[in-house]
């Protein structure tokens, strides 16, 4: 029965935007307290009361315009940020591949970064030692592995990041726009690896603007618009709806 | 108890803490010629400056003893000051990590304290060697009863400051500027370049006793050069120690609150 691995119940996420820029400063806050002035706050509702369940082994695509709430959802799933209201239940180890090179230290070599990045994704020492040679082999970096990451091309950084993430043995894999870079050969290798992981019943959540790729892998799609879930189901149907909204907007 | 909860969570992420420390040491000494020797140079330079500049506040010690005590004290001070100043920016300095991956954020300030702790161990070892060479005697083993708790409480106090400031600096970047000034001022009211027996004037002494670092440094200095420790010193040590531990509990609870908002603000 307990097949669900991600469960959102009435989740709401509000960001507070203060009127005087993004950073608070101690001076302003103290001045406000002394003047008994209430600071004007603007709320931005990134996720409006949302509930859904994702089951183990599903390959779900998050579709929507920029600002629809896709990235916020990924952050909520990976516990990076907390919901304002509602409950989120996540069962299993989550591996996030959110952005190119996020988490790499540019002064250190690829090999040194593997240890750190693997640790951040929740690996322990034994797992890392066992996985390191596989990661290096999969990344195809060869001798570059001992060169500081700052000298890597963006494609090489992507290869290293992806290689580490797939070898962490996650239960849930969050991929955010990772097919943007990387050559055809490596992309195909990634697909092969993803297929392998799918066979192992690993849950995938994909965010990409590449319709072709999504249609090829995903088994289910969630369509979001301005923080609301507007469609849940078949991938092709979701894209039909999504594309129709674009057409209307361009006509206007 | 938040202390136990935090301990358990860090234990789960032990490998990450270890990797952060290794990474920090590698980054710090990468492309430097003398590498880890920089860790020794800082307190050594400070103690030399104080030795020549403030010889009139020896406090009844001979020159060799004076130098030894300066080196021990500045090593300990360097630990406190480096940990706090590096830790302040430890979370706010990694916005890409904080907003892209989940891990216990407390690992960052803690790892900077751990790195400075390695520096401290090297320095204390060197100081002990100097003690043996210059004074021709091994430090009195009985005094370790005081030295070890004094160092332990200083470590907890340092963790307190590091965790609190790293969290606050995410919300108020003012702390980045406030910390270096405060540390400099704090050094003058802590027995680092003088001892409590030095002739520094009653006015200053009446301020110094309110500094929580004072009883810790005082008992540390007294034990090193074999000045008898009185009951009052021990009571002060224990009171400060107890307050520090209690404060740590509240501090961790406060950090947990800050933690839930960090990724949205940074």
Give structural notes.
The complex is a heterodimer of chains A (252) and B (266). Chain A contains eight helices and nine strands. Chain A has a six-stranded mixed sheet with strand order 5-6-7-3-8-9, sandwiched between helices. By secondary structure, chain A is an alpha/beta fold. Chain A has helices at residues 26-34, 70-77, 110-120, 125-139, 154-166, 184-199, 211-217, 235-251, and strands at 4-18, 41-55, 59-64, 85-90, 94-97, 172-176, 203-207, 220-225, 228-233. Chain B has 266 residues and is mainly alpha-helical. Chain B is built from eleven helices and no strands. The A-B interface holds A 15-16, 23-27, 29, 75, 78-82, 94, 96, 98-99, 102-103, 105, 107-108, 112, 115-116, 119-125, 128 and B 13-16, 18-20, 22-23, 26-27, 30, 96-103, 171-175, 260-261, 263-265.
Distance between the termini of chain A: 48 Å
Poorly predicted segments of chain A: none
Number of strands of chain A: 9
Beta content of chain A comes to 25-35%
Radius of gyration of chain B: 19 Å
Order of helices and strands of chain A: EHEEHEEHHHEHEHEEH
What is the approximate shape of chain A?
Answer: globular
Q: Averaging pLDDT over every residue of chain A, what do you get?
A: 82
Low-confidence spans of chain B: none
**Structural domain tally of chain B:** 1
Structural class of chain B: mainly alpha
Number of distinct beta strands of chain B = 0
Helix content of chain A: 25-40%
User: Tally the helices of chain A: what do you get?
Assistant: 8
Largest sheet of chain B: none
Question: How would you describe the oligomerization state of the chains in this entry?
Answer: heterodimer
Helix-strand sequence of chain B: HHHHHHHHHHH
Give the N-terminus to C-terminus distance of chain B in angstroms. 28 Å
How many H/I helical runs of chain B?
Answer: 11
Q: What's this entry about, in short?
A:
The complex is a heterodimer of chains A (252) and B (266). Chain A has 252 residues and is α/β, with parallel strands linked by helices.
């Amino acid at each position: 029965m307990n097949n669900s691995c991600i469960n959102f119940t009435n989740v709401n996420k509000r960001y507070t935007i203060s009127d005087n820029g993004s950073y608070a400063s101690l001076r302003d806050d103290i001045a406000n307290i002394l003047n008994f002035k209430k600071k004007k706050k603007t709320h931005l509702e990134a996720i409006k009361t949302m509930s859904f369940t994702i089951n183990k082994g599903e390959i779900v695509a998050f579709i929507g315009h920029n600002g629809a709430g896709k990235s916020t959802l990924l952050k909520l799933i990976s516990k990076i940020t907390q919901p304002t209201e509602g409950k989120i239940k996540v069962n299993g180890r989550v591996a996030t591949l959110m952005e190119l090179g996020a988490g790499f230290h540019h002064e250190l070599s690829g090999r040194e970064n593997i240890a750190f990045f693997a640790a951040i994704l929740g690996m322990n020492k034994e797992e890392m030692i066992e996985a390191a040679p596989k990661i290096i082999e999969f990344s195809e970096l060869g001798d570059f592995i001992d060169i500081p990451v700052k000298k890597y091309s963006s494609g090489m950084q992507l290869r290293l990041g992806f290689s580490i993430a797939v070898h962490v043995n996650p239960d849930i894999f969050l991929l955010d726009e990772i097919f943007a870079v990387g050559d055809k050969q490596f992309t195909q290798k990634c697909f092969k690896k993803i297929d392998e992981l799918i066979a192992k019943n690993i849950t995938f959540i994909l965010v990409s603007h590449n319709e072709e790729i999504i249609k090829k892998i995903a088994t289910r799609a969630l369509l979001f618009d301005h923080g609301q879930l507007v469609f849940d189901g078949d991938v092709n149907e979701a894209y039909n709806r999504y594309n129709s909204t674009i057409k209307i907007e361009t006509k206007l | 108890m938040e202390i136990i909860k935090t301990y358990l969570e860090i234990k789960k992420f032990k490998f990450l803490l270890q990797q952060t420390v290794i990474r920090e040491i590698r980054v710090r000494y990468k492309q430097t010629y003398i590498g880890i020797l920089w860790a020794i140079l800082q307190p050594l330079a400070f103690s030399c400056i104080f030795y020549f500049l403030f010889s009139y506040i020896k406090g009844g010690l001979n020159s060799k003893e004076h130098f030894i005590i300066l080196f021990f004290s500045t090593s300990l001070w360097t630990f406190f000051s480096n940990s706090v100043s590096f830790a302040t920016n430890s979370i706010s300095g990694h916005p890409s990590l904080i907003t892209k991956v989940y891990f216990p954020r407390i690992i960052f300030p803690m790892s900077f304290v751990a790195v400075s702790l390695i520096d401290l161990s090297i320095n204390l070892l060197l100081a002990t060697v100097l003690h043996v060479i210059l004074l021709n005697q091994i430090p009195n083993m009985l005094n370790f009863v005081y030295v070890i708790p004094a160092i332990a409480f200083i470590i907890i106090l340092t963790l307190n400051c590091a965790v609190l400031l790293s969290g606050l600096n995410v919300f108020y970047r003012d702390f980045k500027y406030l910390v270096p000034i405060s540390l400099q001022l704090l050094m003058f009211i802590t027995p680092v370049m003088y001892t409590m027996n030095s002739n520094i004037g009653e006015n200053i002494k009446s301020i110094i006793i309110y500094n929580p670092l004072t009883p810790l440094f005082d008992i540390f200095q007294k034990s090193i050069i074999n000045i008898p420790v009185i009951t009052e010193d021990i009571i002060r040590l224990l009171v400060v120690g107890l307050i520090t531990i209690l404060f740590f509990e509240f501090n961790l609870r406060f950090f947990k609150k800050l933690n839930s908002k960090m990724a949205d603000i940074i």
